[in-house]
């Protein structure tokens, strides 16, 4: 079985030590490097090519957001999980736009952290419930978006329906049931949207659904 290679980036050595101990003890996961700054994280990501980088958002010098932007730009296949001490961190939206596939709080159970690494390594997105509420609040505070137009011309009517449901927080199984299609077909539609819209993962599809006016802030479901 291929092991998930993980890079840890946090300026607190004790945090890194705790995460390394938990992740190294988990089946199928290996910590291949540690960084104490964003600049070190970018350098190690180039050298080690990890599957997942677990990135603290606040580090001296280059912060986790800038480091994530550089890592995901240089290597689109790389996955990043952002960590923050407080789920109301004002940089949630910027982190997701930088390419993060997950956003978690440091006080979550280690078992949940291990599960998050596996989920994000598989190409899915995972956001802590409190962070999801923060993301929704970010959109709710903005003016109503313009009617959907630019950027969606290349998708089909069915794909627009799927994008709307993804924006509301539905899983593949839930949107399949809602549209009366098979889960496999739902997954195919989501994959097509990712390709056509140039999105990295479902998180960015949610953002696009909001920005294109397909979903209003009151209709999204806070989910992990």
Explain this structure to me?
The chain is an alpha/beta fold. The chain folds into two domains: 134 residues, Rossmann fold, CATH 3.40.50.2300; 81 residues, Arc Repressor Mutant, subunit A, CATH 1.10.10. It is built from ten helices and six strands; from the N terminus they run βαβαβαβαβαβααααα. Strands 2-1-3-4-5-6 form a six-stranded parallel β-sheet, with helices on both faces. β4, α4 and β5 form a beta-alpha-beta unit. α7 packs across α9 and α8 crosses α9. The protein starts with a strand and ends in a 13-residue tail after the last helix. The C terminus is likely disordered.
The CATH fourth-level homologous superfamily of the largest domain = Response regulator
Major sheet details = 6 strands, parallel
CATH class of the largest domain: Alpha Beta
Could you give the order of strands across the largest sheet?
2-1-3-4-5-6
Helix content: 40-55%
Distance between the termini: 27 Å
H/E series: EHEHEHEHEHEHHHHH
Gross CATH architecture of the largest domain: 3-Layer(aba) Sandwich
- Number of continuous helical runs: 10
Number of domains: 2
> What overall form do the CA principal axes indicate?
globular
Measured on Cα atoms, how large is the radius of gyration?
Answer: 17 Å
Mean pLDDT metric = 81
Number of strands: 6
Low-pLDDT residue spans: 145-150, 218-224
Q: Return the CATH topology of the largest domain.
A: Rossmann fold
Bin the strand percentage: 5-15%
Look at the helices and sheets and give the structural class. alpha/beta
